[in-house]
Amino acid sequence: MVAATGIVSSLRVSARALLDRTAAVRGITTITYRELDDDGLDALESTISHLAGLVSASELEVALPTDLAANYVH
Q1: pTM of whole model > 0.85?
Q2: In this structure, how many other beta carbons lie within 10 angstroms of the beta carbon of residue 59?
Q3: CB 55 within 8 A of CB 23
Q4: Distance between CA atoms of 23 and 34, rounded to whole angstroms?
Q5: In this predicted model, what pLDDT tens digit does every residue of 27-44 receive, in sequence order?
């Protein structure tokens, strides 16, 4: 599960690896972003594309922070 608070990647590979690892262990991870220059925007688009593929393959699901609070915080 990916908590949708945004996406960042200063290195495209790092964000993809994080998503792949999250899918492999069925974990929860949060990805955030800061500033989006041209390189950052390219990385964001690549990350979103990879995330969409994982979601389409039912390997990950995306949740908002409010979903996590409602379902996982007791």
Answers
A1: no
A2: 14
A3: no
A4: 24
A5: 888 877 777 788 888 888
Sorting pLDDT into bands at 50, 70 and 90, what band is 1?
A: low
Q: In what order do the strands lie in the sheet with 29-30?
A: 29-30, 2-3, 62-63
Give the position of tokens 């979103």.
Answer: 48
In whole angstroms, what is the distance from residue 3 CA to residue 31 CA?
A: 7
Can you say how many angstroms the Cα of residue 68 is from the centroid of all Cα atoms in its chain?
A: 14
**Count of residues in the chain:** 74
Residue 33 and residue 6 in contact, taking contact as beta carbons nearer than 8 Å = yes
Inter-residue contact 62 to 2 (CB < 8 Å): yes
Query: Which pair of structure tokens corresponds to residue 55?
Result: 């979601």
Question: What is the pLDDT, as a whole number, of residue 2?
Answer: 52
- In sequence order, the 6+-apart residues with CB closer than 8 A to the CB of 71 are 63
